[in-house]
Write a structure and sequence with these properties.
alpha/beta; Alkaline Phosphatase, subunit A; Gyrase A, domain 2; 2 domains; eleven-stranded mixed sheet; four-stranded antiparallel sheet; 21 strands; globular; binds zinc ion
Length: 531
Amino acid sequence: MRKISLLLFVLFTLAPAQAQPTKPSLVVVLVSDQMRADYLTRYGGEFQHGLKTLMTAGAWYQHAAYPYFETVTCAGHSTIGTGSLPFHHGMIANSWFNRETGKAQTCNQDDSATEVAYGAFKGASDSAKWMMRPTLAETMRKTMKSRVATMSIKARSAIGLAGHEGDFVTWLDERGAWTTSSAYAGVPAGWFSAFVQANPIDRDANKDWERTLPPDRYQYDDAAPGEAGAAGWGATFPHKLGPPGPPYLLHWLQSPFADDYLEEMAEAAVDQMHLGQDAERIDFLGVSFSSLDIVGHAYGPRSHEVQDVLVRLDATLGRLIDFLDKKVGAGKYVLALTADHGVADIPDQVPGAGRVNAPTVRATIDAAVKAALGGDGPYVIAMVGDEVYFKPGVYGRLKQDPAALRAVIDAVMNIPGVVRVITSDEIAPSAARTSKDSLVRAAALGYFPDRSGDLLVVPKENWIIAGAGTTHGSAYPYDQRVPVILYGAGIRGGIHQDAATPADIAPTFASLIDVRVPSPDGRVLKSALGK
Ligand SMILES: [Zn+2]
């Protein structure tokens, strides 16, 4: 009899838990800036901690990729945050030329916002004022009183994940002070002031960045062509952080120590804001680790430096997962790991690769317009990345004279490394977003009226518009393909080969917690749900 009642007791207590998907009490979105999809397979043999846990126990979408052109930080984070694409959310690039003000601006520039710094500096600050769609985080905050904390070295990363509002949205300003904006908070958070006092960035002064593993465990060479670090750092280990001062800040930002700092900051936020620890609430934590990007631009994807950042990030994420397991509870939070874009190889290391010189592009266009339309010029008012903006009226005149426009495009096409020039008229119509021409389709998904350039200059594969190191932004797989791994409450682990994009993360998590992100471009990754 006792056995039967015990059995019934077990059945009754287990049955409801199995029938219902586990609702998380905390939604965690982790971004590793510039993490290419192939890093996990290429370098994953050395991972033992957090990255390994996610790769083995998570729902891993191995073919995830951004579908758009301008694969850069602001566009990527805003896509992850909102679940929509740049043609909807409007954050097309890290900066663009504002035709109304006649000046280039950053994606988060908000002159009506004031910096609220954990340091002396106060000036104009940043917000999501240019973001045209709400994020999952702000939707949670509005509809279910969630607490939202996001943090990164970069404003565009913390803001892209949080959106227009948030309880703790924090980044590092250009002087090296942690900061937020009056758009998010009127005063600094007391707990974080104390944290900063106990953990000044200078705490890592005079440390050396050495390889974590024995040197023979790293692939390729430590001293490869084209590698050059910040403020005097050379191609080879060790990299000395030096004494406190401006070069130290540049070195610290280009070291894995900045990732460690952000992880400790995330733990403190969970502790102090009780994220995920209130039965009445589902909270949001977003952390964007920037070191891989800052190191990757200088040292490239084959470098020992990038490999070491990954080995250390594996340990850093392991600590964060262990902490969340203890604090929030294993299986009580849901987590995504992704990246905002990938990166090209350093051209010096790839046969047939090269650099497109931006001043040459600009001068070539000016000369071609002058030849076609006459007058004195200059006709180009700005070139931001690969987007070319003409002075008011110039593009209109070119459009009315197809031969003149053709001549300008042909002149640019003659520049070594240029494969295509796309006009804004080709990508502005909504039909372009489903074009069979993959480049037109990608450019159209990244096009936003008034903000995008008049011409888009497309480099050949493995060619970049950057004078040193390497960069990203293109529609080639090395820039578009990134990890998407979901893990934890409500997620069934497994490897997936079906198509996915980082825009799928917000709608998938929204479905887990029963909120709606308005008309996302991403879709619910149903194949990951069901634990
Ligand atoms: Zn980035």
